[in-house]
Amino acid sequence: DGGEAEAELGRRYAASQQARKRLVEEEALRVQGERRAVRVLVAGPPAAARRVLLLHGYGSKPETWAIVGALDRLAERGVRAVAPELPEISERAVGAEAAAETSDRRTFVARLLEALGWGDRKVAIVAASAGGSFATPYVLAPATHRNVSCYLSLAAQLDRSGDVAPRKSRPPTLLVWGALDNAFPSECLAAQQQYRFFAFGDVRNAREDPRRSQWVVLPGAPHAVHVASPERFCSMLLQLVLGTKSEREKVTVTAEWGDVVATVVPAGGEAESRSAVRGTVVASPAGGEAGSGGSVAQRGTKRERVS
After folding, report:
1. Nearest CA among 74, 15, 7, 10 for reference residue 42
2. Torsion sign (Cα): 59, 57, 19, 283
3. Residue 126: what are its φ and ψ, rounded to 5°?
4. Is the CB of residue 276 less than 8 Å from the CB of residue 261?
5. Using CA atoms, how far apart are residues 65 and 234, in angstroms rounded to an integer?
6. Running DSSP on this structure, what letter comes out for residue 138?
7. pLDDT digit string (tens) for 97-150?
8. Exposed/middle/buried for 242, CB within 10 Å: 0-12, 13-18, 19+?
9. Burial level of 267, CB count in 10 A (0-12/13-18/19+)?
10. What does R_g of the chain's alpha carbons equal in angstroms?
């Protein structure tokens, strides 16, 4: 059962946080068009070269991404990660306060990214289940799809009600499904159709490019595949976002950052990265967090402290 698995992971996560530095913090973010501040969990250095937005599923919460280890893993490697509490579908929204929780899903991600200061920056987007109804309007829209470095769908819904991006410009996409997924009657068919959509677009007989789209089915996993198999999910996430390698999961697609010149992630998994963003060089010490402990950003001869 997904709920029991998440509860057990939550207990382990809480225990581990007592013995280590807490990497995840909670903030309230004012987003244009939203009646109340959006609660977000944030992790990793604010000036990080790589940015990841994680969108939970129906009846879930942003803490799920911390529980499965995604926020910590990303932060430890110098990635800025943000997990918002989504209006209408969060655990709180579907409860007693559901009637007061309304939002425009098709514009929510764009408005949220603007509030974060990421409106014109590359971002990796991860969506689980109903979170896809928030993600795909941004991922596929002609006006914004070029801002998406990659898209990770965890049995996420596909919103194709509006215009979609030209086939050749689709972001690198990893689709992950559980073999036991029965959340919807035609889930397996939906997975195949979604894979073909991202791999080929609407063009028949198009040639598949494994560097642009990959579909992974995890044996024995249910609908909430990231909760049931957190280690495998995190491994695939890091491969997609950072280009790390794994002997178990072979991810063929890699994020296209564009504004990032180079990144180094040691085989040992320590947080050491050197990357250049629009002429800015951010370096982090081995074993530490990028952008912390007095790391310095250099723009030409000007040196600026990164908080």
Report:
1. 74
2. negative
3. -120, 130
4. yes
5. 10
6. H
7. 555 556 688 999 999 999 999 999 999 999 999 899 999 999 988 889 899 999
8. buried
9. exposed
10. 19
Token pair of 285 as six digits: 């010490």
pLDDT at 195 (0 to 100): 72
- Rounded-to-integer distance, Cα 147 and Cα 75, Å: 21
**Of all helices (H) and strands (E), which one includes residue 143?**
none
Size of the chain, expressed as the number of residues it contains? 307
For the entire predicted model, the pTM comes to 0.76
Residue range 192-242, pLDDT digits in tens: 667 777 766 544 444 567 778 888 888 888 889 999 999 999 999 999 999
pLDDT of 47 higher than 50:
yes
DSSP states along 72-119: HHHHHTT-EEEEE--TTTBTTTTTTTGGG----HHHHHHHHHHHHT-T
Cβ 172 vs Cβ 254: under 8 Å: yes
Cα–Cα dist 81/208, whole Å: 31
**CA separation for the pair 112, 160 (Å, rounded):** 20
Q: Would you say residue 191 has pLDDT above 80? A: no
The strand order across the sheet containing 274-277 reads 274-277, 280-283, 296-299, 302-305
